[in-house]
Amino acid sequence: MSGFEQPIYPKVGPGGHRFESFSPKLNRRVVFFDRWNVDQWVLLEADREVTRFCERPCRLQPKISQRLVDFWVKTHTGAYGLLIQTAQEPPSDADKTKDAPIEEIRTVAITDLTACGQRIQNWRLILPYLIANRTLITQEWTDPVMDLLHKPQTLGSVEHHFRGRDTVLIRAALFKLLHQGHLVSEDLDKRPLDALTHFESGHGQT
After folding, report:
1. Domain count, the chain
2. Which of 94, 115, 136 lies at the terminal end of a domain, its last residue?
3. Which domain holds residue 152?
4. Collapsed DSSP state (helix, strand, coil) of residue 175
5. Distance, CA of 48 to CA of 44 (rounded, Å)
6. How far is CA 76 from CA 24, 48, 72, 80, in A?
7. Are residues 78 and 52 in the same domain?
8. DSSP secondary structure string, 21-64?
């Protein structure tokens, strides 16, 4: 199967949650119905190995179950489905996934998402820059930032170097390079995003 492009939209009763945003990686609107799917979406946007994804791509067992696969994910090396295991659900097993339209199904526990809390929190701050400025950040902005990052820099040092230029757009340019995998930052997994957050070239890293 080449992939999934169209999400399934389930019926949501009165009082149901609904979260809408825009995916820079997909260049389209995304809609989620619980916070755990929102957190997983943020992690997919942050993952430089993920090239595409689709939320709620298909049912886990189309003939007998309404349970939706939470994400189909395509990376540089393959593709797989993600199933977020909530506390209300029994553990997944091979029998439940053997008839799935996606050959490989990976289970994500809530504890896995919780463990990525700092990364999720930081990317929740980064994504609005990418979304709001997606039509403004051209190579005119990204090339000078990339040139500067031939050696590691902090966010504060980047902003200081380009003082006199729009700080929001400089940040957006840096974050776009990060989102595209040209830059990396181990700090984003460990501490809150601030002026001391380090960034470096991601070329040659896996």
Report:
1. 2
2. 115
3. 117-201
4. helix
5. 8
6. 18, 9, 14, 12
7. yes
8. EEETTTTEEEEESSHHHHHHHHHHHH-TTEEEEEES-SBSSTTT
Query: What one-character-per-residue DSSP string does 144-157 give?
Result: HHHHHTTS-EEHHH
CA separation for the pair 100, 98 (Å, rounded): 6
Three-state DSSP class for residue 177: helix
- Is residue 10 situated within a structural domain? no
- Of 84, 115, 146, the residue that ends a domain is 115
C-alpha dist (Å) from residue 42 to 48, 49, 113: 12, 14, 10
Same domain, 48 and 90: yes
Number of C-beta neighbours around residue 8 at 10 A: 13
Q: What is the rounded CA–CA span in Å between residue 82 and residue 97?
A: 11
Residue range 121-164, pLDDT digits in tens: 999 999 999 999 999 999 999 999 999 999 999 999 999 999 99
Same domain, 102 and 128: no
Q: Kindly report the pTM of this predicted structure.
A: 0.90
